[in-house]
Amino acid sequence: MTAAMNEKTIKTTCPYCGVGCGIVATVDDAIGHQVTIQGDPDHPSNFGKLCSKGSALGDTVSTENRLLHPEVHCIPCDWNTALDTVADGLTSVIRQYGPDAIAFYVSGQLLTEDYYVVNKFMKGFIGSANIDTNSRLCMSSAVTGYKRAFGADAVPCSYEDLEAAELIVLTGSNTAWCHPIVFQRIRKAKENNPALKIVVIDPRRTATCDSADLHLTIKPGMDGLLFNGLLTYLAQTDALDNDYIAAHTQDFEWALQSARNTAGNIEIVAQDCGLSSADVEKFYGWYAKTAKTVTVYSQGVNQSSSGSDKCNAIINCHLATGRIGKPGMGPFSFTGQPNAMGGREVGGLANTLAAHMELDNPEHIDRVARFWQTDRIATRPGLKAVELFDAIDAGTIKAVWIIATNPVVTLPDADKVKNALKRCNLVIVSDCIKNTDTVDLAHIRLPAAGWSEKAGTVTNMERRISRQRPLFPFSGLAKPDWWIISQVAARMGFKHAFDYRSSADIFREHAALSGFENNLEGQPRDFDISAFADLTEDAYDRLQPVQWPVTKKNPNGTERLFTDGKFYTASRKARFIAIRPRAPVNKPDPNYPFTLNTGRLRDQWHTMTRTGLSAKLNAHKPEPFVEIHPLDAARYHLQTHDLATISSLWGNMIARVVITENQQPGSLFVPMHWTAQFSSRGRVGALVNPVIDPHSGQPESKQTPAAITPYRAL
Ligand code: SF4
């Protein structure tokens, strides 16, 4: 290679899914915004591999469609003007209506340092917890499930467990498309060990099913019943680990009784799940006999009005068999976003505080307040995503600051969200993109630095913290999110607490809080990275991927949790949760006879603001489409390539018809990605019912009653 004089290679992390692949980026300072992307062979998440999206990152780093300067009421201005306007606007709302009249809606795209600072500002200094995140739509039910079972939001497994497993159950997870590099690792594991069995539980036949030994085409929303049936079966067939249950768990009988009451008979479970008894028995039999079992669950489980209960039904089966904390075993939730896990670390959800502390725990509130040296800290949980936009719609929230996300497209009942923002007194949006559906509604637009410009850390779904490093200088007047927040905080009188010079400063503070008085409750805390509290700038720059907890005693991190059978509950025992399975809240009816499912495509990311810039990625699926079973297509007079109108009680859209037996009769599938920016045919979020899980607040995005008719232009 004739390396140009200005060429340099930089190790960073992919900004898309929760797999968290390491990247080696080669840039030439003389050429401008061009980069060659390769997988980092040394990164333990991907060992040099990248999927289609990661490989195409070079297509997405141009300044095309970038927001390059601040704007107030569509007039470009300098930073001082914009920041003063934001600070004055927020101060005025607080004075008139109190801190709860302010809201933030942020994103799993933020780096941990950005996430920490915005939560500190809102919860610690504005004094309200009305700050939630788009991760609420992705994994909040998994968080609730872990907290109820383990006493902490602690993902027990590593990717190595998938490779060591002899049975992998993938439920509600199109892993092949949504977490492609982990799926490649699973496929490789199967090549190396033909005895490894893969069970896929999904109403649709997806690309993941190509590698499955058994595909259970479960009726939408019935996972809780299926896993309750499994717990009953394990007890009936003497497959329980009674010693483990006695030594390390509590409330088993309560959970088993509930499982027996609701799913005591395989035939009835199979019938209610829309499956054959033989297939259910095969799955249960494999599970009962295979010690090394990992159950992976993702949005198909979480995005449900009973998502938390489904997660606990899965965890119950692992606790009942002692399959946790050992190689090749465990309940493993897959998160969608690159830093969903980092957001969880810093209290990114409206009901949590930094360092995995809780807003419903006075001791935690007191501890964080003393660490931040504030007397203004929020003292109760705030509004979760759907409720938060309802409050904007109702006019009780007067000002909202949206950062790095596009709720006008992605939230359920998205037309209501759009109208709420149109009516809101003050809408501030920080984004690196110039014109998303949400940016278009902002009174104040703040240009944020993009992926290729920011420095910080992200944590992937196996708790691995990796560095994101800048490839280019900031475009235009763009700034890091933590800088923007800190500048506003300083203008509102909190300079002393937001006097950061770099992302390393913030990371050290975040690490110090994770170890602050961590023996106060007489038991170890799950999230502890206090080993990094004194990291030098240089060491932060060189930080290697590492899985938390990382303490001075344990400086190389932790591959697997609960190896000693001790959990983070008061008793140090894991809790079984009694589950009463519930069907989706809104059921199909004669007007809306289909169940509409939404999801991701292989080559697009969220609302396409970056992946939509790549011709190669757009070629995979070039326009919005709806998948329908051939019998339904015939009944509704739809042909392949027709346009169809899909409607629900909440909204409608137009999409190209794809007829496929991968769909079950009575169901439709529409991808989540298209927006007004890329299509004039509407967005699926407008159709999705705004029902939420009562424990986690996660919306039921997978099951909305819907109708389909051939499209007729007016
Ligand atoms: Fe990026 Fe996820 Fe693909 Fe890895 S698997 S390259 S993290 S999108």
UniProtKB/TrEMBL annotation:
Its cofactor is [4Fe-4S] cluster; Mo-bis(molybdopterin guanine dinucleotide). GO terms for biological process: cellular respiration; nitrate assimilation. GO terms for cellular component: membrane; oxidoreductase complex. GO terms for molecular function: 4 iron, 4 sulfur cluster binding; metal ion binding; molybdopterin cofactor binding; oxidoreductase activity. Residues 7-65 form the 4Fe-4S Mo/W bis-MGD-type domain. Its EC number is 1.7.99.4. Keywords: 4Fe-4S, Iron, Iron-sulfur, Metal-binding, Molybdenum, Nitrate assimilation, Oxidoreductase. It is an enzyme of class 1 (oxidoreductase). Belongs to the prokaryotic molybdopterin-containing oxidoreductase family. NasA/NapA/NarB subfamily. This is Nitrate reductase. The chain holds residues 1 to 714 of 893 of the full protein.
